[in-house]
Amino acid sequence: MVFIHDTQQALMAAVHLVNTLPGYDGEDRLQTTAELDEYLVVNPYTGLLRRDAAELAAVRGIRNRLRALWAVDREGAVPLVNEMLRDGHALPQLVIHDAYDWHIHATTDDSPLATRILVEAAMAFVDVIRADEYDRIRVCDADDCDAVYVDYSKNGSKRYCDTGNCGNRMNVNAYRRRKARETA
Fold first, then answer.
1. Looking at the chain, which terminus has fewer C-beta neighbours within 10 angstroms, N or C?
2. What is the per-residue pLDDT across 90-109, written as a single tens digit (0 to 9) for each?
3. How many C-beta neighbours within 10 Å does residue 182 have?
4. 108: CATH
């Protein structure tokens, strides 16, 4: 499964934003404008950036809408994605700027950041749905993690997120359980 660069970039930005929500540890990782700035360093957006409390609140406000995309199947995602596109007044257009080749922007540069994030994520999910690759939209299999990810592995076998050490931790736990059974 290979998506074009801007689709992968928008999916990654959505994953990073959703994973700022409080998880099992209860920690919200997007509470300050400094944390929003950190998010924007990893997930850059062109256009107007206000970097103020109102923008932070708006971006925080879309996280649950994006998280909902990981709680449904392909058919369930369609109305959510369509609603995001309608709410953002999406009007896809080909653009070229900076070091990027031709790609799609579906909002204007002066649209609020939260709108741009939401619409770009929705556009990326359009590609996932159309490619019939929604089974790669996943929640971590670790017992103590609910982080989301997109499985880009060749054979679609990834089970754990990249936010922590979930895969190693679960493998160690399984090993310890096996050893405990052997010695019992």
1. C
2. 999 999 988 888 989 999 99
3. 7
4. 1.10.3300.10
Range of the domain at 148: 5-183
The tens digit of pLDDT for each residue in 129-157 reads: 999 999 999 999 999 899 999 999 999 99
pTM for the full model? 0.92
**Torsions phi, psi for 32 (to 5 deg):** -130, 160
Residues 6+ apart with CB under 8 A from 13: 43, 45, 117, 120, 121
Tell me what percent of the residues of the chain surpass a pLDDT of 90: 78
Count of domains observed in the chain: 1
Secondary structure of 32-81 in the HEC alphabet?
CHHHHHHHHHHCCCCCCCCCCHHHHHHHHHHHHHHHHHHCCCHHHHHHHH
What are the beta bridge partners of residue 105?
93
